[in-house]
Write a structure and sequence with these properties.
CATH superfamily: Vaccinia Virus protein VP39
Strand order of the largest sheet: 3-2-1-4-5-7-6
CATH topology: Rossmann fold
Largest sheet: 7 strands, mixed
Distance between the termini: 69 Å
CATH architecture: 3-Layer(aba) Sandwich
Strand content: 15-25%
CATH class: Alpha Beta
Length: 311
């Protein structure tokens, strides 16, 4: 009987979370709506508590293996370095991390690869937190900047790096050009992103359209590009030497979605730290995480990798 009541209690909590999810969408309106969303997530500390310093998916190997959630996020950074051909670049290589979050990847790139890293995000609170988390002597600095109009001159960096920032960009062509504009000739662009299936080839069906709408509306995304579409946009800038290399890491990152939800179970201290309101905020994200797992598992979404050399 006691188990029945416990399950009933948690069902009620989950129902409350779903109701909050449905009545409080975070639609994309402008760059301010993105900044405000990340400011809020950063200020309350819930996302960092459960997801760690790396606010991106993890890499679980190919085929995926059972790996600790936070370890998989560190592995993702190292796998992306290898895939991008960055591991042998010399110390002091300048790297721009576009959409750096609270600086988790930036610090790894600075500490483990001796890169001179600049991280940019649209969120002032993320910059503040990134600075707080960065030890003295780590060559990573952070500033507020808009990826649609970066404040740096042309040809400023040896490497431009971006993870899961593209869905927040309203004009993917402008985003592609800005990433390449600030890259030095011969420099390397490496991007990892959430992408939609190319609907020019296979249009979204009756259930995919409402799922995609929810994925856009709940996390302040104006649109997802496809892997094929964003690759074409990079090429059309006229700033790429040779071909744009792409890859699909959907299977390698897929376990992250359920692991994200599982953190709420394995980290019960969060109930004490954030209280009832924090619990409801956390439960509010569960439907989107489940829809993400559905979308990536069913082929509606794909995890795209992009590599290009600046001409």
């Amino acid at each position: 009987m006691s188990l029945f009541y416990v399950l009933g209690f948690f069902s009620i909590l989950l129902l409350i979370g779903i109701v909050v999810y449905l009545i409080t969408p975070r639609n994309y309106e402008s760059s301010d709506s993105v900044a405000n969303s990340y400011d809020e997530w950063t200020e309350d500390g819930i996302l960092e508590f459960y997801w760690g310093e790396h606010i991106h998916l993890g890499h679980y190997g190919s085929p995926p293996k059972s790996i600790d959630f936070i370890t998989a996020k560190y592995d993702f950074v190292h796998e992306m370095v290898r895939w991008g051909g960055l591991e042998n670049l010399p110390a002091g290589t300048t790297l721009l991390d576009v959409g750096c979050g609270v600086g988790g990847s930036s610090r790894i790139l600075a500490k483990d690869y001796n890169f001179d890293v600049t991280g940019v995000t649209i969120s002032p609170q993320q910059v503040k937190r990134a600075q707080e988390l960065t030890p003295e002597g780590v060559d990573a600095k952070f500033q507020v900047d808009d990826a649609m109009a970066l404040s740096f001159p042309d040809a400023s960096f040896d490497v431009v790096w971006s993870v899961e920032a593209g869905p927040h960009m309203p004009d993917k062509a402008v985003f592609a050009r800005e990433l390449l504009r600030v890259l030095k000739p011969g420099g390397i662009l490496v991007v990892a992103d959430w992408n939609q299936r190319d609907d020019r080839l296979i249009p979204l069906n009756f259930w995919e359209k409402p799922v995609m709408k929810q994925l856009l509306d709940q996390w302040s995304h104006p649109a997802f590009a496809s892997i094929e579409g964003f690759s074409e946009l990079l090429g059309k800038t006229g700033l790429v030497e040779g071909e744009v290399a792409t890859d699909d890491w959907t299977q390698e990152t897929l376990p992250s979605w359920i692991d994200s939800i599982w953190q709420g179970v394995v980290k019960p201290k969060g109930l004490i730290l954030f209280g009832f309101s924090g619990l409801i905020k956390s439960l509010r994200e569960v439907p989107t995480l489940l829809l993400m797992r559905l979308a990536f598992g069913a082929g509606l979404c794909r995890f795209g990798m992009f590599r290009a050399t600046r001409s």
